[in-house]
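Supplementary Methods. Inverse-folding protocol.

Structures were first reduced to a discrete structure-token string of length 288. This string, shown here, constituted the complete conditioning input.
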């Protein structure tokens, strides 16, 4: 074997991305063809890779791009390309003038199994749970959704609530001619899943709610109330920090795996959504 085959010449992007991935995944021996998941990657490490690429290479990408390209060679080609290929598995749907999306993993028309439809949290999209996807995809087909207000979907129309999101979910099933699903609602998505289960119990084989609570501890509610106050005043930095403090433990004496990365991701998301949330408050005020 020639030396060129043993040690292929890497482009600058491939070299830089490989170094980032080796640092994040702690695998010095990885090469540009290794699948990130085969090396132990999870959602936090994929976000870290995305953040490092943006910081060190100055290239704007989404962390779902890291998920769908899966190795250094493919991800580098995407970063260098002038034409960004959209996700091939994303299917767009429109209901009552609102655009949203879903993606399917596996054969949802296999009569031997019941597909799982997964509604994710408010800070997530349909590419946000690669580890869960990896664990569940061999058990049955999966349907992930970007309902209005999340991911690539349009915003939720004014004065619409979880009943509207449940209706959007039902329209996906009707479009796919699916009568029965196993329904999983995670965090914020649990409210939509619960509403769907109440309205159409005959279409739910089993339902699971994850990270969903009926009440909040008083000190957490106080932080959320404080965050809302800052938002109404236009104090976005204070709003962001109080929101994060209500959902992420910031005590330096307690070890939290991936806390810094999670904090950075949440801060970026809160900051990007601040104007939308401010508009929602203004609409609510005008309706009163």
């Amino acid at each position: 074997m020639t030396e060129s085959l043993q040690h292929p010449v890497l482009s600058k992007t491939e070299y830089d991305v490989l170094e980032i991935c080796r640092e994040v995944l702690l695998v010095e021996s990885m090469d540009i063809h290794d699948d990130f998941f085969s090396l132990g990657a999870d959602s936090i490490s994929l976000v870290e890779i995305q953040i490092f690429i943006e910081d060190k290479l100055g290239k704007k990408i989404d962390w779902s791009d890291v998920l769908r390209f899966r190795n250094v060679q493919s991800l580098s080609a995407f970063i260098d390309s002038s034409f960004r290929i959209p996700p091939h598995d994303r299917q767009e749907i429109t209901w009552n003038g609102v655009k949203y999306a879903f993606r399917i993993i596996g054969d949802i028309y296999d009569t031997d199994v019941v597909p799982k439809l997964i509604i994710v949290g408010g800070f997530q999209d349909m590419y946000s749970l690669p580890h869960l996807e990896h664990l569940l995809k061999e058990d049955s087909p999966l349907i992930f959704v970007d309902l209005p207000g999340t991911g690539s979907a349009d915003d939720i129309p004014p004065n619409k609530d979880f009943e509207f999101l449940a209706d959007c979910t039902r329209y996906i099933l009707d479009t796919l001619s699916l009568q029965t699903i196993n329904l999983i609602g995670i965090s914020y998505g649990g409210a939509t899943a619960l509403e769907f289960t109440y309205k159409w119990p005959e279409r739910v084989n089993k339902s699971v709610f994850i990270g969903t609570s009926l009440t909040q501890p008083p000190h957490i509610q106080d932080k959320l109330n404080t965050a809302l106050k800052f938002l109404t005043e236009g104090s976005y930095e204070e709003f962001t920090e109080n929101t994060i403090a209500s959902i992420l433990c910031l005590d330096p004496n307690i070890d939290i795996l991936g806390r810094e990365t999670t904090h950075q991701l949440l801060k970026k998301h809160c900051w990007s959504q601040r104007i939308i949330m401010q508009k929602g408050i203004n609409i609510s005020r005008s309706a009163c």
